């Protein structure tokens, strides 16, 4: 199965314009809706040996022009995330910091979260990342524990969030709010206390997002 042929055949110029506008005209698109793209990806996965991660495939997708290629690379890595090892983290960081925008970065944070949950030593790295000069690396650190519920490391979460208070960057403040909002579904009192303690240093956006369910 030739992915380029399948994606090209599914091109929709009208939807491509809409997608490009939504992403502030930073990336060109084929214009393939997510459900259709995932069907193409699933059909492709049936034709290949998926036992180990083919990093040449991933990095090749990342270099291609249309944004759907990067989405396919993320879908591929998520499908094979059990094959990820700590030594793959520099490769993941390279993806995070290349063609960076919230759409790909928020797909990649699941992979770092998986690695950190399986390998506690990665938590120290996430703490380091929370102070990185690159906002997208910091965003991954902030959000890497999403959906963990009772498995959330609250000590680490607090440290990472505190490292990013008093920030003016929209995507950082949004991430702080999302991280707190997600954990509030499990432990609303912890989130209330965090907001109460740190509200003078939190952006209104973070407080608004964090308070949605409490």
Automatic annotation (TrEMBL):
Species of the source: Enterococcus eurekensis
Protein name: DNA alkylation repair protein
Pfam family, one: DNA_alkylation
InterPro entries, A to Z: ARM-type_fold (IPR016024), DNA_alkylation (IPR014825)
Transmembrane domains' residue ranges: none
